[in-house]
Specification:
By secondary structure, the chain is mainly beta. The chain has three helices and 16 strands. The strands form four sheets. Strands 3, 4, 8, 10, 11, 12 and 14 form a seven-stranded mixed sheet that branches. Strand 5 and strand 6 form a beta hairpin. It is globular and about 60 Å long.
């Protein structure tokens, strides 16, 4: 239908120029945010999204993936038996493939294989470093890869601003800002959130990004570990 209207040089419903709509649902005249003058003045500034007003500017960026691991499920798969997904029960809870304290270990972790040879595994740590003088705003690209549970991540002492959910900037169809401040976010499998930590007025020190699911603060039988990492503010 849209192609036919374009050929007839007529506007499609909700279109702004007869060829394309102003938003994915063609709902009408969705305004575009104003051009951010700061971007033109300082091209070195980085932005999480094309927000138009500079509100998603950040200094450092950290991707964080939440996940769980069921060793029994994987063991069954290694023995060439069919895995029963209904029986999956995670016993390790990880950030970027590591559980605390390995989430803050700087060097690459090596683990022995079945042949006894140590090989590198999960090379990236999850330490979040923020310098209040040179760059107080950290962008966290948080995603959840778990297929069995919801996970919650929280901070204490550092403002957390959610600017986008599932890769969509939090603006309504009229362009109004829908960002919100919180101390925790909860995600299910396949969901994501973009969060900015602003340490401009935060005292220097070590803070934590951790799960409030207390049973996820463990590495199987070890009671202290799991889904937690450190935020180092200088």
């Amino acid at each position: 239908m849209l192609t036919a209207l374009i050929k007839q040089n007529k506007k499609a419903p909700g279109a702004t120029d007869g060829m394309r709509c102003s938003d994915i649902l063609c709902t009408g005249q969705t305004p575009v945010p104003l051009v951010d003058a700061n971007r033109a003045a300082n091209p070195a500034v980085k932005y999480a999204y094309n927000d138009g007003d500079g509100s998603t500017a950040y200094d450092v960026e950290y991707p964080i993936q939440m996940m769980g691991f069921d060793p029994q499920f994987h063991f069954v798969g290694m023995t060439f038996n069919p895995e029963a997904f209904v029986d999956m029960k995670d016993k390790y809870f990880l950030l970027n493939g590591r559980g605390y304290p390995d989430t803050v270990t700087q060097q690459t972790i090596s683990t022995p294989a079945s042949d006894g040879v140590y090989r590198p595994s999960q090379p990236l740590n999850t330490v979040i470093r923020i310098n209040r003088t040179t760059g107080p705003r950290a962008l966290l690209r948080i995603s959840d890869l778990n297929v069995t549970e919801f996970h919650t991540l929280a901070t204490i002492g550092i403002p957390m601003t959610v600017i986008a959910v599932n890769a969509r900037l939090l603006r309504d169809e009229s362009g109004n800002n829908l960002y919100y401040n919180t101390n925790s976010i909860t995600l299910g499998g396949g969901e994501s959130a973009d969060v900015i930590l602003d340490a401009s007025n935060v005292p220097a020190g070590t803070y934590f990004l951790y799960t409030t699911n207390l049973d996820h603060l463990s590495n199987d039988a070890e009671n202290f570990g799991g889904m937690m990492t450190e935020i180092l503010v200088q």
